[in-house]
Amino acid sequence: MSASTSNSISTNEQPSSISVQRYSAPLVAELVANAAALGCVVSTHETGATIVDAGIQVPGGLEAGRLIAEICMGGLGNVALRHVPQFANWPLSVVVTAKQPVIACLGSQYAGWALSHEKFFSLGSGPARAIAQREEVFKDINYRDQGEQSVLVLETDKVPPAAVIEKVSKDTGLPANKLTFILTPTRSVAGSLQVTARVLEVALHKCHALHFDLSAIVDGYGIAPVPAPSPDFIVGMGRTNDAILFGGFVQLFVNTDDAAAEALATQLPSSASKDYGRPFAEVFKAVNMDFYQIDPMLFSPAKVSVSNVKTGRTFFAGKFNEDLLNQSFGS
Asked: Which residue ranges does the chain devote to CATH 3.30.1030.10?
């Protein structure tokens, strides 16, 4: 049973002045201008698009990953690195907050735009999604953006072919030379960090899946340990998921009744899923690497608290699992 029945957010709560294109533009400019220092490299694609390699032919790095995570959030998020002694072997953690959590996480950061051509496939996240409107989630959150330039972050170890860039250009209505593509393979430090920085977004996405009233979400905070990347795609991808599933914590501030807040807290943690209990790489292999065979309720933080600003009560659920975290990160 879901905590509520509505996903929509009224137009009054999504001011047109909140533009993920505008807020992210200075961050993209910073990444491009300081690419060499950040362990990235910038090039111009044959289509005219700007390509930022953050881990394919270059090492990438923590600061690059932190900055890219803020770009993914449309400039509405604050991403920081902290030493947190919650887990003995993995003290480096990423801390995430957002000025407008629903827009930042679901309207920008969520990797929901599937792009493919022949042997190329990648999920796109970032501000360009809000212009293209290719996903149903934008109807649910009632958010649309526009701009004269935009950026898309791709989790890939390949430069996108011209056909993919031309599709993004067509769907956004922007010429290719006004588009920037940031490439972040999970095997890079930057890629591993920017995926782990989705801890708050994962919680918001599960709220959406649970049909919780997103307009009741006032604010949020997330934290998760940062894993080392792996040259093995499945291992690396598994670690970034496990960082959130077994070590992630999210606090949501909501404005609703206590019954809805408590129901949300109970359903949010990863341990509420039938597929919980093994490192994600094992779960992934067990279903022949078919994401659609995995319980979608698994993708959520290990531990949550839901604070109801209307009544002052906070509801807690979930648990950290350091043993599974060690098993995943140390493999």
From this structure: 198-331
Q: Tell me the pTM.
A: 0.94
The helix (H) or strand (E) run that includes residue 219 is strand 217-225
Environment class of 254 (CB within 10 Å of its CB; exposed 0-12, middle 13-18, buried 19+): buried
The domain defined by 9-73+101-185 folds into: 3.10.340
Dump the DSSP string for 112-163: -EEEEETTEEEEEESTHHHHH--STHHHHHT-----SSEEEEE--SSPPPHH
Architecture of domain 198-331: 2-Layer Sandwich (3.30)
pLDDT of residue 116: 95
Q: In what order do the strands lie in the sheet with 217-225?
A: 77-83, 92-98, 217-225, 249-254, 303-308, 314-318
CA-based nearest residue to 19, from 131, 178, 140, 154 = 131
Summarize pLDDT for 271-313 with one digit per residue, the tens: 999 999 999 999 999 999 888 899 999 999 999 999 999 999 9
* Residue ranges of the chain assigned to CATH 3.10.340.11: 9-73+101-185
